[in-house]
Amino acid sequence: GQNIDQPTEMTATEGAIVQINCTYQTSGFNGLFWYQQHAGEAPTFLSYNVLDGLEEKGRFSSFLSRSKGYSYLLLKELQMKDSASYLCAVTTDSWGKLQFGAGTQVVVTP
Amino acid sequence: DARVTQTPRHKVTEMGQEVTMRCQPILGHNTVFWYRQTMMQGLELLAYFRNRAPLDDSGMPKDRFSAEMPDATLATLKIQPSEPRDSAVYFCASGSGGNYGYTFGSGTRLTVV
Question: Which positions 12-71 of B are in contact with A (Cβ < 8 Å)?
Answer without folding.
Answer: 31, 33, 35, 42-43, 45, 48, 50, 55-56
